[in-house]
Amino acid sequence: MWLRLMTQRSKVKLPKMDACIWTKNGGNILAKCLDRFNAVVPQAVIHRKIMIDDHSVDDTRSIGKMRRWEVYMNSGNGIADAANQALSMVSTDFFIALEQDILLAENWFSTVSNSIHADAKVASVQGIRYPSNSTLLAIYHDSDVEAHSIDNNIFRTEIIRKIGGFPKKCALCTDSWLKLNVEAAGYKWVIQPNVISTHVRSTVRNELKHKYWTAKTCQCGIRRLSTQGELHTLLLSPISGLRLARKFGDPMAIITYTTLQLILFSAWLTNPTLRE
Ligand SMILES: [Zn+2]
Fold this sequence. Notes:
By secondary structure, the protein is of the alpha/beta class. Helix content is 49%, strand content 20%. The chain has 11 helices and 8 strands. The protein has an 8-stranded mixed sheet with strand order 3-2-1-4-7-6-8-5, with helices on both faces. The longest helix has 22 residues. The site of zinc ion has 6 residues, from loops.
């Protein structure tokens, strides 16, 4: 009788999982990110909170410690090394991956957790995230609905280990290579479009600089684009920008979208790994 009661109770209890975050100079946003995490994720399901910091020079590590995360220095460099270091410490069947500029949606844990428990072939479940800046929201809205990432996910530990962990092929494209490896091994990567977290972005100018830098720096060629496709997108960008400005009621979307396409085109011209 006692055993039966205990078994019944354990059936409704969610298994504990480790939570992992990788950080770098996130002092201006990390506290909000971790506080939102605490508000959204039932703390009873959390086993360990593991933070791998990539040699921050601000107060990132002390913010983590104050919020009772175990803080470790990245023994390598960049996201893939940090994520693999975190993965080596995970001792639960599932683990959460979070990044410092994400404010999780209220329905994030319930939806993402139910989804990964529902199918043993699912290696990763994530929600989507929209930029906090309204102009960036206008220009990214349609592509962000299907964008994969590793900043608001629950992963199935065994599968991620089995496929070799977080790929180090490109410092900028860890997420794309991981998804490719997951699917190539016959597993699933689920994106829940009804879970909308916030991607904290400071200014349009910073975002455009960041986009240029990432497009210029990528050396893996996972997102190769044809000349015809790039030219087509660039030439149509004022019209596409106007459509987005009308759709989202933000006139700045015209110039921002056009500038973004110009920036991406110039990066494409100077980076041969982007060209088909
Ligand atoms: Zn790349």
